[in-house]
Structure formats: C-alpha cells, structure tokens
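Example (one chain per record):
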Amino acid sequence: MAIKSKVRKIGILTGGGDAPGLNAVIRAAVHSAHQRGWEVVGIREGFEGLLKPGLARTLLREDVAGILRTGGTILGTTNRGNPFDYPAGAKGRPNRDLSGLAVKNFRKMGLGALIAIGGDGSLSIAQKLYRKGLPVVGVPKTIDNDLSETVVTFGFDTAVSTATDALDKLHSTAQSHQRVMVIEVMGRYAGWIALHSGIAGNADVILIPEIPFTLESVCAKIKERYRYGPKFAIVVAAEGAAPRGEGLITKGKKESGREHPRLGGVAEFLSREIQSRTGRESRSLVLGHLQRGGEPTTFDRLLATRLGTAAVDLVDQGRFGQMTALKPPNIVAVPIARAIAKMKRVHPGSDVVRSARSLGISFGD
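Predicted structure:
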C-alpha cells in the first residue's frame, strides 16, 4: 500500500532521444510540484547529471515559462551516460558500473524522489536505480510509440504529423516527374510511424519491421500503380523494415555506448532496387531527425502535461517504481518493470493494417 510521501525536493531528468513534448512534461511537473511547496531540481544531460552534480540546477516557475509549445528539452539529453555501463574513457578499457555514485550523488543533493522521462532504455536504467533504493517515477517518452502498457507515448503524434506533411509535399513532385519516391521514417524496430503516416499520407506501399517484405511484391505493386493509376508512386519504409529472410539494414557497426545499432539505408536500398527492377525513375528521402524536432501537436502537449502532473501525484502518494501511462480515458500508474518487459509492436492482423490493405496499400508481403 502506498504511503503518503514526505518529499519536499524532487529531481527531474530527460534521457534518450529527444521528442516533442518533453518541455511540456517538465513544465507540468515543476508547476505541480511548486503547488505543493516542493523544490524541483533539473538534472541536465540525462543520467549523466547524477554522476556530475554540477549539471543540476533548481528550476523555478520562470524557468519553465513559455516552454509548453517548444520542442527539445531545456534539460538536455543523451543516449549515453548509463551509470551501470559507463564508458571508461580510455580505448580498450572496460566500461564501469558507477550506479553507486549516482545513488550517492542523489542523496547528496537532498532529493526525495526522481522523475525520469524516457523510453525503454532510460526507463530500464530508472528501474535498476529503483531496485538499488532510489525512489523513482517514470514518464514514457518515445516518438517510436514502442513502449508497452501505454496506448500512446507523447512525441508520436507530432512525429506522425511531420512525416505526413512531408508525404503530402512529395506527392506533387513525384507526380510532376512520374517518379517513385521512397521515404524512410524512424521507429527503430516498430512500424507505428510508418503505418500511421503512410495511411494518412496516401502511400501506395508501407513497409514495417513486423511484416517482412519481398522486392518482388513491392515492385509488383509499383508496376500495377503505373499500369492502372497515376504514373507515380509513394513508398513509406520504417528504418527497421527488412527483406524477408535477411537482416536489418544498418549504418556501419554498432557504436560504443549505444544500446542499439544505428539503423538506416533502407530507403536508398529500395529506391535502387525499384528502379533497377521496374525501370521507373526512383528517388529516396530520409526524414531522420526532422521527426524529433519542432513544436508538439495539441495532442502531445495535452498528453505530456497530463503525464507530468500524474508523475508528481505518484511521488506525493509514495508510489515509486511506477510509470504514468495513458489507458483511455485516464492516466494510470503501471509498474516500470512491466512497461519495459516487452516492446509494443504493430500487430500484423490489427484493424489499422486491415484498413490499409482494404485501401489497396501493399505491405510487400
């Protein structure tokens, strides 16, 4: 049973890749904490800030004024700095476990709780720190929408809107030149962005990691499009999409300090193969970090605000080791451990996929 918290000073950090809505969460948490008379300490550069206390600073109301609509994060973030696997600095030396130092610095700062905003990687670190005794509450963040136990994560709606806007613009140039345009979107090992933007952006082919494709099927759809429809085509490919029976397409080797290999190159690969196999002129475009930037949509601003205030509520109730989550119509608390236990991926038989197929969209299978 949760015990009413006696917390009077909390820390907040943002880890992993940035996402539209991070500042909205920070703002909501600061205002909600100040309403209770608490002090809020912003920990810069993710978990790195727990290893270097000089990166922490008190956040006042004026520090978060006007940031609701801004992209990025005023606290900065990083994909590195894992205190359980911290880079040694010297080449060839093994990484170090500095989690004990992180806990020590947390207590030195006089913090009574930590709100960690992040995706599966950052929340996995938060869960480990919770098991070491840190009072942690998680807030789910990822444009990939691949975190379990929440219907949607903030940042996803904005990323889909950005991708859809790009697709809208590409239609006119594709039609003018009678080209095949292949657009690569983010999403890592989940196809949520590709699926949603592909349908909303009127794509002819959508390729996602959950449904392996064949070049024969993709090219057959392209040929059909040119034979019976307008003489241009739009292909949307998630960065983690891969040909059936083959591995992921990546950019070089896995980098030190990165949990995952750097995906990328599927659009260029597809464009080259489509042009070679169909004889149709093809171009590729990688949207990349455009999907992470810009002002959050209204939906993401509201969701981020609700998740941020709910996180402070959990701290106040002493319910640590929990993550705020959207389970419509409410924001609820779920164990962080359960949220990171498995990746939320697109179900190939979902109604969204069925709807796309009914429209004649090919998944290359």
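Caption: The two ends are 49 Å apart (CA to CA).
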